[in-house]
User: Which sequence fits this backbone?
C-alpha cells in the first residue's frame, strides 16, 4: 500500500466510496463490555465544553475497513490538542513497510511520505477544524440525550448519518432518517464510554460510537452500510489512551529531511477570508451575498469569502443544536448531470437534490452564478432555504 492511501485525521467528505472513508475517519474504537452505572449523559453543550477543556491526548489506533471479503488494516499513533488544532499522527500498514507522518502546529500542516521521501506543506485553519469537531459532538450528544428515559420531549431526528439504497433502475435513493439512541455506558479502551447508536430506515446503515465519559473523545466505533449494493464495514479503535500527558510544542513541529522533495500545497493562489457576521462579509466584498431564511433554531456560525483559481465564492454556515446548513454562491456555473441526482423545482428555477452519506446538497444555477444549500438537515429544510434565496 502506498502511504498516500493511508487515512488521516478525521475530516468530512462526500462522494461514493468517499462516504466509506468518511465513516472510517470519524469512528474511534476499542473492546468493551457492559460497565453498569456511571455519569449521566450531559447536554450537548456541556459535552462540547468538556472536549474543549482537554489539553491533549495520546493514543495508538487501529482501523479495519472491509468491502465485501477484502479487509484493509492500518495502524498508527496520534497526539492531539483539540483546542488548538495541533496534532501529530504516524500512520502505517500492518507490515510497517509504508509510513506517513502528518504534523500540524495549528496553522501549517506537513505530510511526509517516507517511501517517496516527499514532504507536502499545507495551510490549514486549525481552530476551524476544532470548531467543526466540537459542533459534531454537541449535535450528536443533543440527539442522543433527547432519547433519555425521563419521558421528556424528543427532538425531531433529521438525517444525521443516512445511507443510500439502490432502486431497480440503479439510481441512488435517500434511505430516510436516522434514529439516534443513547445505549448507556460500556468500557472502551479501558475507560467508561457513553454509547450512542444510529440506525437508518430499513437498516441500510448502522453505526455505534463510544465517547469517553470525561473528555468526549471517540474511543471506539463500528459502522456497516450498503452503498449501491456493496456492503462496507469499518471498525476503528483507540488503545493505550493517555489524557493530558506532558506534551511539548516540539511534538507539533516538523523539519523535512534535507534530501526530501518539498511540495508546496499551501494554495497560495487562493485568498480565503473568514468573517464573524454576514454584515462584515457584505461590507468587504463586491459579489452579492445571499440572504437566506432559515428555521429559527439556526444561527450563523461563520461567513467566508474565497477568491482565486478563476472563481470567487461566498459561503455562510449556520448551526443548530442538531444540524448544520451551509449556503454557497460561486460566480461560475457547474455541470449538474449527475446520474443519481433528483431534479427539483426551487421556486421558478430547476435544480438538483442529492445525498452523499451524511450530507445532502441542493444545487442550481442562476444569472451566471451557481448556488448550493447543503447540510445534515432534512430534505424539506434544505429546499425551503434554497427557495428563500434571491437570484442576483
Assistant:
Amino acid at each position: 500500500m502506498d502511504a498516500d492511501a493511508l487515512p488521516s485525521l478525521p475530516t468530512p467528505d462526500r462522494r461514493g466510496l468517499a462516504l466509506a472513508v468518511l465513516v472510517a475517519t470519524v469512528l474511534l474504537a476499542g473492546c468493551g463490555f457492559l460497565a453498569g452505572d456511571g455519569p449521566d449523559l450531559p447536554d450537548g453543550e456541556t459535552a462540547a465544553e468538556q472536549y474543549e477543556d482537554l489539553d491533549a491526548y495520546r493514543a495508538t489506533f487501529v482501523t479495519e475497513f472491509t468491502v465485501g471479503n477484502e479487509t484493509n488494516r492500518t495502524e498508527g499513533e496520534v497526539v492531539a490538542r483539540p483546542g488548538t488544532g495541533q496534532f501529530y499522527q504516524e500512520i502505517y500498514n500492518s507490515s510497517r513497510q509504508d509510513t506517513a507522518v502528518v504534523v500540524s502546529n495549528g496553522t501549517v500542516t506537513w505530510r511526509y511520505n517516507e517511501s517517496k521521501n516527499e514532504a507536502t506543506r499545507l495551510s490549514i485553519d486549525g481552530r476551524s477544524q476544532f470548531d467543526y469537531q466540537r459542533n459534531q459532538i454537541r449535535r450528536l450528544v443533543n440527539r442522543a440525550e433527547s432519547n433519555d428515559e425521563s419521558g421528556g420531549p424528543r427532538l425531531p431526528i433529521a438525517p444525521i448519518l443516512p445511507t443510500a439504497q439502490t432502486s431497480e433502475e440503479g439510481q441512488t435513493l435517500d434511505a430516510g432518517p436516522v434514529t439516534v439512541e443513547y445505549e448507556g455506558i460500556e468500557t472502551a479502551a479501558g475507560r467508561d464510554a457513553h454509547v450512542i447508536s444510529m440506525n437508518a430506515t430499513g437498516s441500510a446503515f448502522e453505526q455505534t460510537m463510544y465517547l469517553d465519559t470525561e473528555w468526549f473523545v471517540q474511543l471506539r466505533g463500528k459502522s456497516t452500510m450498503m452503498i449501491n449494493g456493496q456492503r462496507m464495514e469499518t471498525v476503528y479503535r483507540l488503545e493505550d489512551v493517555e489524557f493530558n500527558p506532558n506534551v511539548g510544542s516540539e511534538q507539533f513541529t516538523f523539519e523535512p529531511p534535507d534530501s526530501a522533495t518539498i511540495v508546496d500545497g499551501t494554495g497560495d493562489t487562493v485568498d480565503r477570508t473568514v468573517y464573524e457576521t454576514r454584515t462584515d462579509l457584505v461590507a468587504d466584498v463586491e459579489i452579492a451575498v445571499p440572504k437566506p431564511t432559515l428555521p429559527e433554531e439556526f444561527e450563523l456560525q461563520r461567513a467566508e469569502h474565497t477568491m482565486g483559481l478563476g472563481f470567487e465564492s461566498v459561503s455562510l454556515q449556520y448551526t443548530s443544536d442538531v444540524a448544520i446548513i451551509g449556503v454557497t454562491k460561486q460566480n461560475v456555473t457547474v455541470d449538474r448531470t449527475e446520474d443519481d441526482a433528483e431534479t427539483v423545482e426551487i421556486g421558478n428555477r430547476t435544480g438538483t437534490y442529492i445525498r452523499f452519506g451524511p450530507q445532502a446538497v441542493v444545487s442550481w444555477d442562476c444569472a451566471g452564478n451557481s448556488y448550493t444549500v447543503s447540510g445534515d438537515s432534512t430534505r424539506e429544510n434544505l429546499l425551503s432555504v434554497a427557495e428563500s434565496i434571491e437570484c442576483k
